[in-house]
Amino acid sequence: MNLITLPHDGIWAVVLGTMQDAGLPHIGCTCARCSQALHDLNQAAYAACLGIVIKRGSETAVTLIDATPDIKYQLGLLANPLGSHPTRLDRLRQPDAIFLTHAHMGHIGGLPQLGPEAMAVEGLPVYAMPALIDLLQAQTLWRPVLERLELRPLQPEIPIAINADCTITPIRVPHRDEWNAGTLAFRIQGPQRSLLYLPDIDAWDLWPQARSILVNVDIALVDASFFSGNELGGRAPVAHPLVTETLTRFADLSTRLMLTHINHTNPILDAGGHENQIMQAAGAELAQTGTFFQI
Ligand SMILES: [Zn+2]
Ligand SMILES: [Zn+2]
Ligand SMILES: [Zn+2]
Fold this sequence. Notes:
CATH topology: Metallo-beta-lactamase, Chain A
Oligomer: single chain
Order of helices and strands: EHEEHHEHEHHEEEEEHEHEHEE
Number of domains: 1
Radius of gyration: 18 Å
Bound molecules: zinc ion
Number of strands: 14
CATH superfamily: Ribonuclease Z/Hydroxyacylglutathione hydrolase-like
Largest sheet: 7 strands, mixed
Strand order of the largest sheet: 6-5-4-3-2-1-14
């Protein structure tokens, strides 16, 4: 994977991962796609993650949406925008903030990498819903890393300004919630474009405002875990809408629709395959790690 080099000043959204929580290969899976990715790292792919990079001359601010189990690779992709640690020149600078969508493994599983055994960050602001902060703080096992973070509560619909030209607004979405900690999407408003980042949602029907929110952003990166109902050997996919339904619902919008949080079983991963062509014909695209666009 090539390192990210941003061509000029601005506020950039950077796709840092596109897979469901477990990434590709999916642990323990012997399907052809996972077997291939296990033996050829060029075929592997990271858990869904988005970076927001504010670049002004040599100064940058780097925000991650979610801390995935692949965070070390994802920060590595951002080596150029991050630059060096102020005192340890053989290390990358820590990111400037992390926003967490929810408590599932693929979205918080990278937090321990920030702790004393690994990156050893200091005072890194991590934004999350208060119930998720309480849940994290209840885990004594994670105390060493939590002591290095500055946990900051989010409130739905209240924007956080990460600089004068860019806000991140949390929006509650319905999603499997074992601990009553909630799940968020984020609406990111830059000076030029707006973006919705929504990696996990149970069903569009459970979120009546979906269409009005998607129509009012320029770019939407949305949950595309499963293509169709026959993907899991007859078991109904749980806790995610199907790509077929997402395309039917939103393909008519002028919003740039990018599919992310893809399960390893999803046939849209096969470039040129039938399902991938259906997606393209509907005007949607598969999010690609390493791509970036100005917002
Ligand atoms: Zn997820
Ligand atoms: Zn697999
Ligand atoms: Zn989830």
